Amino acid sequence: MNIAAGKVFMTATNDLALLMVFMVIGVVLLQVVKPLQKLFLPAGLIGGTIALILGPQVLGLVQLPKTWNGLPTPMINVVLTCAIFGVTINRTKMKNYLGAINLIVLTYFAQMFVGCLVDIGLGKIWKNLPYSWGLMTVYTYWGGHGAATTAGTVFESLGVPDMISLGIIMATFGLIIAMVAGIPLVNYGVRKGWATNVSPEETSGDVLTILVPEDKRKPLGFASVTSESVNGLALQLGFILLSIFIGSTLFQTLAKVPVPAFASVMKMIPALLYGIVGAIILWAVMRKTGTDRYADMASVNTISGVALDICVCSATATLNLKLFASFLAPLLIHLVCIIVLMLFICVVLLRRWMKHDWFELCLMAFGQGHGSTPSGLALARCVDADHKSTSWEGFGVALGVFTPITLTLAAVLPFVAVQNQWIPVGIGLIVTIGCLLFGEKVIKRQA
After folding, report:
1. How far apart are CA 294 and CA 297, in angstroms?
2. Can you tell me the distance from the alpha carbon of 123 to that of 129, in angstroms, rounded to the nearest whole number?
């Protein structure tokens, strides 16, 4: 028994060690190949792509471990749990930044509505497209590689194949488009006089490097307990794994309730929800008992970052390249529709609703809605490097309020979409209309 367990541990350790080799290769390429930094591609994505090319699907020079296929699910469970653990919503800030919050919510649900609707239309032409793949729009273009892997994992657990690979492909397209389309938007806005906080020094650019100067380095976390009692990082990991255990125990117990209909629903709940629910319960108990002082959010974020890097690298390395070749045309058509939608929301509507500091927020939302938050912040920095605009805090508050909700939706909505692909269309349409009315009746009048 112990020998068998030891072999399993050694296999996992060796397979993870090989994954880290490609992760480090990704870091080296980021530092050496400067254009990669301009696209804000993560090292995990680059390393995973190298592994994919060297692996059996392309060159066949490296035999990739089969265990890599199973890494995304547990890693994403950790990421989602970390994101929810310790979240407290500040109502006062929500009031002060309603415009930014409304914009972020609008881009999310408008992408859901248009993405799912275009998916249904394209499905009439390409019959072999995965069912309800259009919902991946908000988890790839809007959410990035982490959310794409999360939703893809849920879809595949519900019987929809190839969604992780599809999600990684779409998220990569989004990252590239965020900068390829975003930089021309920056230049156009500067020429039109929309960038009120820009200066020649801010557009000159910096030396590209991923190395943080020694005087600007930040700690990855803080010890909330003495090292003699327990390692600080181990304690935070304990909180995260305890959250997953609490959620798992809760749903498994509910699945045993002697009510067949209720029990069957509980059995169908995606495992990715376990950590989310468990983190909410554990954090509420810790705040009530005063033990929240033992938690360190910086360490929790570090744990989340490690899990996400492992997830992205392994998911990219095991992409289905045949899927990419088969679905390239519908993916490009779908992407063009999303670009047009985001330009309309971020440029036309936002300019109509907000009179001051709107362009910086426009760039943040455009970049974030196509690739990732760093993409949006990089675009905004082109016209406001000194953070003079109020959009910076507004954007941060908006994401802080809405991101925990989106992480929960990533685990819930695929379950709904598999039942009926028109449900996300309806949800997206209703919330989009609500945001449009809120923008016209409230945000516009406050400007």
Report:
1. 10
2. 6
Q: Are 151 and 416 in contact (CB under 8 A)?
A: no
CA distances from 4 to 1, 7, 11, 374 (A): 5, 5, 11, 44
Digit-coded pLDDT (tens) for 239-255: 999 999 999 999 889 98
Name the DSSP letter for residue 123: H
For the chain, the average pLDDT equals: 82
Average pLDDT over residues 101-106: 91
For the CA atoms of the chain, what is the radius of gyration? 22
State the residue for tokens 């009926």. Answer: 420
Phi, psi (degrees; rounded to nearest 5) at 430: -60, -50
Q: At how many degrees (to 10) do helices 145-157 and 297-317 cross?
A: 70
User: At a CB cut-off of 8 Å and minimum separation 6, what does 82 contact?
Assistant: 240, 279, 300, 301, 303, 304, 307
Average pLDDT over every residue of 75-85: 80
Q: How far apart are the C-alpha atoms of 209 and 369, rounded to whole Å?
A: 25
pLDDT digits (tens, 9 = 90+) for 327-349: 888 989 999 999 999 999 999 99
Q: What is the mean pLDDT of residues 272-292?
A: 89
Task: Tell how many helices (H) and how many strands (E) occur in the chain.
Answer: 21, 0
Contact of 46 with 210, CB cutoff 8 Å: no
**Cα maximum dimension of the chain:** 71
Q: Are 278 and 246 in contact (CB under 8 A)?
A: yes
Q: How far apart are CA 334 and CA 274, in angstroms?
A: 32
Helical packing angle, 373-381 and 163-180, nearest 10°: 0
pLDDT at 207 over 60: no
pTM of structure: 0.67
Dist CA 99 CA 389 (whole Å): 14
Tell me how far apart the alpha carbons of residues 397 and 403 are, in angstroms, rounded to a whole number.
10
User: Region 142-165: what's the mean pLDDT?
Assistant: 83
